[in-house]
Design a protein that fits this description.
The protein contains twelve helices and 21 strands. By secondary structure, it is an alpha+beta fold. The protein has two domains: about 220 residues, FAD/NAD(P)-binding domain (3-Layer(bba) Sandwich); about 180 residues, no CATH class.
Length: about 450
């Protein structure tokens, strides 16, 4: 064997797996990353945005969601107490490497009152404790994480893994795009969300059982920060769930950014929208996503392809993301640049093309988004204003979920799958925690 452990992917799950293995004295360990090193990544390019040291989280605004109900499915593998301890352990590592100590969303009478008022509006508020790193600070924290392991773990960036290698139901290593075979006793697959397609292909090749995850499609909402100030001061990011009257579809808010900015998210195939908050600078607006969950069974079972189709349609009509005033949408007319210029909400993404989102979304999705805005108006008057801005589209793709053991091992012996790429996490903190679970399982097996 060339290595004891090979890790595929240097996002949070892969980094925390490597860090844990190093701390436990396991070696030699090889960490392979498709993208560039941190100091060479470029946000303006699609590959640089999603791939490289730190994964897609390097250019996020660094929300560490500390509540076990949010950000993944590790609760299906661990007891509640064990999961809480694991999240605390992961969080401490982030803080030790520079994440701020302030936590939003602690239990309080204000939070309880907010939850009660949400119920009166047919909304469910999911309590969540959040540590906010800030977009401009994520790279610094990730650089410190790299320095913690660089002398203990071999790191290769710009190194594509072509295939996982196995023999007689047991992993034996990986094959690189260069043709080189690397053999190791254990492999941890941590390709991240951008590696979902690769993970799906490898799972099919290895005969692993998987199941499709829903795709979340919706809009990024932008409005004056005072409209949501009471909520954001209390909980920072409110996670609200609503079931529509017309279709009984699940709709949720996601990634609320107080005083933040709407940004373009580039992949190699599509342009979508997202939102960030900086720790040190503020805009006049708050933005958040409204997402509608779509699941499919038969004969169609490819929700990722459906999400790409909707995003491509928006790109076709708008040559990129589209912006529309809520008042124009409700009046059945397209937003023009003149109408956007008259809007009381000043857009933080001027590159978005004024247009008509009703040409992009199916009626079912559009109706669900409008109903959610109406419900939010009851909780925070001003949300359903004609001056509220909608950007489209925002799409959250989730990898096919791989059947895993409680230790996150696949049906192929000694092959572990972790993080967003395995479909078991959806955020920085649970992705990090999944890396610790796999690393500790490998350590226990080697030591025994």
């Amino acid at each position: 064997m060339d290595y004891e452990v090979t890790i595929v992917g240097a996002g949070p799950s892969g980094i925390f797996a490597a860090l844990t293995l190093a701390d436990l004295g396991i070696g030699p360990v090889l960490l392979l990353e498709l993208g560039k090193n941190l100091d060479q990544r470029e946000r303006k390019h699609a590959n640089g945005m999603l791939c490289g040291w730190g994964g897609a989280g390097a250019y996020s605004d660094g929300k560490l969601t500390l509540s076990p109900e949010v950000g993944g499915f590790l609760g299906e593998f661990l007891e509640a107490e064990s999961l809480n301890q694991l999240l605390q352990k992961s969080d401490k590592i982030w803080v030790d490497h520079g994440a701020p100590k302030l936590v939003f969303g602690e239990s309080s009478p204000k939070l309880e009152d907010l939850a009660d008022r949400a119920r009166l509006a047919d909304l469910e508020l999911i309590p969540s404790r959040i540590r906010h790193i800030g977009t401009e600070n994520c790279l610094t924290v990730l650089d410190r994480l790299q320095k913690s392991i660089v002398e203990k773990v071999e790191i290769r960036t710009e190194c594509r893994v072509e295939n996982l290698l196995s023999e007689n139901g047991q992993i034996t290593g990986v094959k690189l795009a260069s043709g080189e075979n690397i053999y190791s006793r254990f492999v941890i697959a941590a390709p991240g969300r951008s590696g979902a397609g690769w993970m799906k292909k490898e799972a099919e090749t290895l005969g692993l059982k998987t199941r499709a995850s829903p795709v979340d499609i919706g809009v990024r909402v932008e409005l004056p920060a005072p409209v949501l100030k009471e909520i954001t001061d209390t909980i920072y990011e409110s996670k609200l769930i609503y079931y529509t009257k017309t279709f009984d579809d699940k709709v949720r808010t996601f990634c609320m950014n107080p005083y933040g900015e709407v940004v373009i998210e580039k992949s190699s195939e599509i342009l979508t929208v997202n939102g960030h908050s900086y720790a040190g600078r503020k805009s006049e607006n708050t933005n958040f996503a409204i997402l509608v969950s779509s699941a499919f069974t038969e004969p169609f079972d490819d929700p990722i392809a459906y999400g790409f189709y909707i995003a491509r349609l928006a790109n076709l009509l708008g040559k990129g993301p589209i912006i529309q005033r809520l008042g124009d949408l409700l009046a059945g007319r397209r937003s023009t640049q003149e109408r956007i210029n008259r809007c009381l909400t000043r857009p933080t993404l001027p590159e978005a093309t004024p247009g008509d989102l009703s040409f992009v979304f199916p009626f079912r999705h559009m109706q669900s988004i409008i109903e959610m805005l109406e419900a939010l108006e009851k909780l925070a008057p001003g949300v359903y204003s004609r001056h509220t801005l909608l950007y489209g589209v925002e799409v959250k793709f989730y990898s096919n979920r791989i059947d895993l053991s409680p230790e996150l091992e696949t049906q192929v012996k000694n092959l572990f799958a972790i993080g967003d790429g395995a479909g078991i996490t959806r955020g920085l903190i649970q992705a990090s925690a999944s890396g610790i679970v796999a690393a500790e399982a490998i350590s226990n097996r080697l030591n025994s």
